Amino acid sequence: MKKQLLWVLCVVFVIGALILFWSVNLITEQAEQSMSYISKSDQQTLISYGRKAETLYQAGQEKILERWLQELRIKEDTWAAVVESSIEVKAGSDLPLHYTQGFSLGRSVEWKIHLYFKANPTMDIPFADGKTHFLIQLPARMRPGNLYPYAQIVLQVGLPLILLSALAIFVYGYLMSPLRQLQRATRAFSQGELDARTQASSGFIGWRNDEITRLGVTFNDMASRTARLIRQQRELLSDLSHELRTPLARLGLALTYMEQGARDEKTLRRIRWELQGMEALVEDSLTLGWLTNEEPSLRDESVELDALLDVICQDAGFEYPGRIIELRSEAEHVLHFSNQRALSQAFENLVRNALKHTSPKSRVEIVIIDRGESVQVDVQDEGNGVPTELLDAIFRPFFQVSQSRSQPAEQEQKGYGLGLAIAKRQIQAVGGQLVARNRYDAEGVCIGLIMTATLPKFC
């Protein structure tokens, strides 16, 4: 899903807003409801006032009742009265009995008090006769909801602040958890820990697949490639320095020999040969380094594969006149979106490697096979093959073939083990693959090596 993080945040904020409004409304209603009733103790006080007035009234002690009411007004800073009520039905009307019996001039002490009314309500405590009532305006000290203005501030400011802070903390944690992993991995990688990675597929973010997680995956891919390149560069530099020591040492000895007065042609040829070898080594190392570091995509030309291999075979025939080189193809093959120079250098290395490990009078075959969307090229020699466990190792830089294959006794060991490594990377640069496998006869005896290059016809 594109912009998954946006959708997650939208859902979080919408749900958070709904929870906020619902919580504020619910708690406000509950708070208002709980604050809208006179407390039990104040209810009992009002009822006791009514019973006191009823007792004095029933006893006929009007003077004492009047004085008591006056004292009550001063005490509670309100007004109070004892009144009689009567309902007179007009025009033959008829009222239900429960209405006349339950008639009141004020509010019962058990009723809800509206907090929004500024004036205090009149409370009615009826006497036993049902006609006489003790009326008192609710004293200010008994008015419920005195703390309601402060509760409103808490509910309208404090509660949203708490809920929004919780939402912000959740969103912050959701965003920062993978970013902290990325920060730790980046810091560790910058300090030389080449295996440092984000945990993009496990832990808290294992179930996520948003932009931040994909950023972690991208970092892991970048770190893996960078670490691989750094290790390859270190290995290349180490191997290159090792390979340069021997010809440099030989050059030093030859120069020392000449300084001592020996200036024969053989020594000069040796120096020239060493210099040419070092030049080839440096050039091949630079080519390998470029192919390894840049991992280029060389897909800008169309290549006539059969003509290219035919030229390579003719050139190799002059260099190795004692070998039989055979090119077999059933049709013309054109590779679109490929690169002639890369393929030329790659197949030159493959063919020369096969010839180098093939005895005189033996055969090297290059077979082109059409596979529909791709073309397969097999370079087959009649050498001694390669131990199975070293079939992948022969494509490593500076892996000397003498470690895995014997070659004709009359041939002097040349090269530095870069040819196959360069060939493999050049074929990969045009979108192909290169693998090696041994050839066996009917009795299971190894009779040579096959280098198989698979090349795409189209992009």
Verbal overview:
- Mean pLDDT is 83; it is low at 409-413.
- This protein is of the alpha+beta class and 459 residues long.
- 51% of the residues lie in helices and 14% in strands.
- It has helices at residues 4-34, 40-58, 62-76, 97-101, 148-190, 211-259, 265-294, 305-319, 340-356, 419-429; strands at residues 80-84, 122-126, 132-137, 301-304, 324-329, 334-338, 363-370, 374-380, 433-440, 446-456.
- The radius of gyration is 50 Å and the shape is rod-shaped.
- Strands 5-7-8-10-9 form a 5-stranded mixed sheet.
- The chain has 10 helices and 10 strands.
Which class best fits the helix and strand makeup? alpha+beta
Order of helices and strands: HHHEHEEHHHEHEEHEEHEE
Percent of residues in helical segments?
Answer: 40-55%
Strand order, largest beta sheet = 5-7-8-10-9
Compute the average pLDDT.
83
Give the low-pLDDT segments.
409-413
Rg to the nearest angstrom? 50 Å
The tally of strands reads 10
Largest sheet: 5 strands, mixed
Intertermini distance: 28 Å
Shape: rod-shaped
Number of helices: 10
Q: Which percent band covers the strand fraction?
A: 5-15%
What keywords describe this structure?
459 residues, rod-shaped, alpha+beta, three-stranded antiparallel beta sheet, single chain, five-stranded mixed beta sheet
Would you spell out the secondary-structure blueprint of this structure?
Layout: H1 4-34, H2 40-58, H3 62-76, E1 80-84, H4 97-101, E2 122-126, E3 132-137, H5 148-190, H6 211-259, H7 265-294, E4 301-304, H8 305-319, E5 324-329, E6 334-338, H9 340-356, E7 363-370, E8 374-380, H10 419-429, E9 433-440, E10 446-456
Parallel strand pairs: 5-7
Antiparallel strand pairs: 1-3, 2-3, 4-6, 7-8, 8-10, 9-10
